[in-house]
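Practice problem: predict the structure.
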Amino acid sequence: MGDDDSPWVLPEEDVAELTVRVVVIGVLLGAVMTAANAYLGLYVGMTVSASIPAAVMSMLILRGFKFKDVTILENNSVQTMASAGESLAAGIIFTVPALLVLGIWTEIMWLETLIIAVLGGLLGTMFTIALRRLFIVEEALPYPEGVACREVLVAGEKGGTGLIAIMYALGIGAIYGWFVKGFRVTHQHVEGGIHFLGTRLYGGAELSLALLSVGFIVGLRIASFIFLGGVLGFGILVPLYGLINGWPGSGDIVDDFYLVWSSQIRYVGVGAMVVGGIYTLWTMKDTIFVGLSKALNTSRSDNSELLRTEKDLPLDKVMMFSGVLVVLTFLFYWYATGSLLLALAGALFLAVVSFFFAAVAGYIAGVVGSSNSPVSGMTIATLLFTIGLVWIVGDLMLGMQTRDLMIATMFIAAIVATSAAIAGDVMQDLKTGHMVGATPYRQQIAEIIGVLVGAIVIGPVLSLLHNAFQITKTACLATNQRILEGGDSGRFTSIEGSPNNSLYNCDDALLAPQAELIGAIVQGAFGGDLNLQMVILGAVIAVILIRLKMPVMSVAIGIYLPLALSVPIMLGGVISHILLNGAILRVDGTLEGEASSEAKKAVAEVQDRGVLIGAGFIAGESLMGVLLAIFIVADIDPAKALGIGTLGDSLSLLFYGWFVAVFITLAAQAMPKGSHLITDTTVIIAKAGKDLIKSLQPPSRK
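Answer:
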């Protein structure tokens, strides 16, 4: 087995990986994760990464059934398959229900949903196979959730103190997650706003241990740029927009902030992400070209001499299969739109844009993790590109009807969005596999199996949820109207007092906020009301950031995400900075100059311990998210069963603060003996302030 700097399973070792029991358990877990996350995403508008929960459940199942000689690579293969379905669900639920919002569909069409899921999921997987070496080996992006998943797998394999620590942290994270999300004892976020100089200011934080852990793993630099984007969006752009154009007038300052952000400023983040993604790929063009060339040459030659841990699926075969998928997409578009020219343009457009967004999604997941990857933002960006293509080809050149233009737009965008959603997860899983010593081509086969399972499951799950609750209030109202007009039938919720006792209660409809937003964008685009001004503003901001040599993608993500999500990430980055510099201070006695080798070793120990604890917290909170989805599907409300009210903001902050203190205490146990942590913090902050002042001073003239 490898040390900390090499894979856990060394390249020369050949251990069980993609076995029959792994495939069976992976398929079953993948189906459950797909269904649970589809419901959770439609219910609250976001999904949780299933990699870590799947890794924990895999270990429990494989060891619980007393299977002999269970390997870490088998557990890794199970979590790979299970998490693929969850990510596929994210891409589908953000786009397919928009067809209900637009009135194009009146029910979920299983066949079309299956085709979209298979084509998008497999394209995303194929493209990321081509980018694995670039992002994971050469760029060595952090992939915080991939690192956390590795820690979970290794702790389960090693046992001993590492396993005890991560199980202890998992238990703490699960307790916190269940009390906050299940029993709703405290608020999930604390927010507020004030009137200030003719406008308004906002402050808030998501009280999430998982996001805190992500911040610790990615470190202060990346966390601070994400936070900077949040401050730019919520702290500057939203107040400026309200000052110039007025506020929505909802009666609540925080609600007004979110209304302005969701309808206006979010598009600034979309524009910045598009330009940032193009720039990022442009700066890496030489590396991409060299990497793909090497991979192609390797796949064409005898790869028997390659290390086991470097063997991908043959890239020439991957590219051929990608070409087949593009041809199948062309045939699907032709069938859906009835236009040969638009289908051809759409398929060629898909081949380019899908690769672009797969690369962007893989890169973003490497920075903030796939749970926090703004898939909906990339979907909106895809929509904007797609609307332009369909308008030129379908409207100006072919004069197609508005409904047909909407169908073409949604089908093209849905496949690209699904491709982007799966790409971030695949890259994260491949990062985990790289660190534990998995065989890439076997893990890539596991991803393909997971995608196909998710594609088969997602259509029936959406149909079941739509028949039971209705997906989005817009679709619910339209369904009730058809019932009243006698033009619809099926399984409906009986409501006493309704005209025919068979209408849906639209107050119980699933929110599906992204689908509602995407539907509104498509309607607005073909009705002449598209928010291009804010997208262009985002592009301009991205250009300025590039000129300032700042990491444009990290800032763009911060603009797109609510500021409240950036706050715990920033807090985790600050904690990481203090603990790591504290280790140097205790060994060297100073932070000036280059750290000694002993200090660097101490920093590595603190970093490893913090990542281990963070992995447990992420796993615990994620597991509770999945469990809560199961309770919701079963129509059980744990909060009502407990009968306890929700604490106020101050007590919610204290409750969260106690768990943050536990995180710091557990991570700090790996620090060398020395001065008190408060003393260390004072010295580190003073040094940071001194460096900041020095950096702002103009260079002295000699």
